[in-house]
Design brief:
Layout lengths: L45 E4 L2 E7 L11 E10 L4 E5 H4 L3 E4 L8 H7 L7 E6 L22 E11 L12 H20 L3 H14 L2 H4 L4 H24 L3 H14 L4 H13 L3 H14 L4 H29 L20 H8 L1 H5 L16
Antiparallel strand pairs: 1-2, 2-6, 3-4, 3-5, 3-7, 6-7
Helix pairs in contact: 3-4, 3-6, 4-6, 6-7, 6-8, 7-8, 8-9, 9-10
Length: about 375
Amino acid sequence: MADPDVLSSPSGSDDDNDIVTEGSAFVHNEPAQDDKDLPKVESEMEVLHEKVKKQIIKEGHGKKPPKLATCFLNYRAWVKSTSHKFEDSWQEQRPIELILGKEKAEMAGLGIGIASMRSGERALFHVGWELGYGKEGNFSFPNVPPMADLVYEVELIGFDEAKEGKARSDMTVEERIEAAERRKVEGNDYFKEKKVDEAMQQYEMAIAYMGDDFMFQLFGKYRDMALAVKNPCHLNMAACLIKLKRYEEAIGQCTIVLSEDENNVKALFRRGKARAELGQTDAAREDFEKARKYAPQDKAIVRELHLLAAHDKAVYQKQKEIYKGIFGPRPEPKPMRVKPGAFRPVSQQQYLEVLHPDLWWGSHGTHVHQSQSLADL
């Protein structure tokens, strides 16, 4: 049975571009943290080259990339002696493309490391200055001092050997769209096999073929063709991320789709789901209401709106109980009880001495005659 967390199309069935999640749980490692400090890794140090050493952070799967394979990766780099971080593709949220055997001279050590990796693997590489920025260093961007040993943290998303080392920039529009489509289909197949790590890597690689620089150049039918591949990959990534409880990232994937198609029902629904999980109920309701406008018969949308209404009611009742506990019920006024003998009669003189001393004592120190009554005063 299809998982109710995934929105079906208005017609009631998912198209071939979208994944259908089954009722199962997945485990996926969190992305590398945006930390300025060098990561601490306790795994064994492996010597790949006299100037390149490796420590595995997370094991990968499958085979290693051959020479001339187009590799897609994220990495960050530090100067080892000062722990100065000078590059971070995770922070830029844009995977790097590197063709093994054709990398720049300053990335020779990094290329040796990547050749030892498998898809999905994350590792730390210690690279000597001879295979980095050399004796002179680099004083533009990135800023690397002379003779600086380097440390790289790298995640190999995957690689493509189909074009035998042909870079994305050298591909035709049709070739890039075809490569992205192939990755998307492979990702869907992996997901159906419940291999969520492999599926997400394929989606990331497909999206990498459809980078901003590429999409900016497309118009008309070519742009439509590219979006027909790119947007489902973002939506499928969002569905995976919701399952993994990585809600902020899921929101980001949906927002990318909505920047191209503001009325995309699946993007609105999944972003609403992620926002609701983060407690952003007003924003979630706004997404669900807009999705219902374009798919009024969709039961999943109606259900989520009912859940939000129930949640709001529960929150109100809880707050009501909390305030009741703090302030308590208003006390009833108690009647004043007077003890017998609490009051006693006073004489005219005592009354005037206390309440009207000026009348009692007069202006020359003589008191008013006792025969005068209170009425006369």
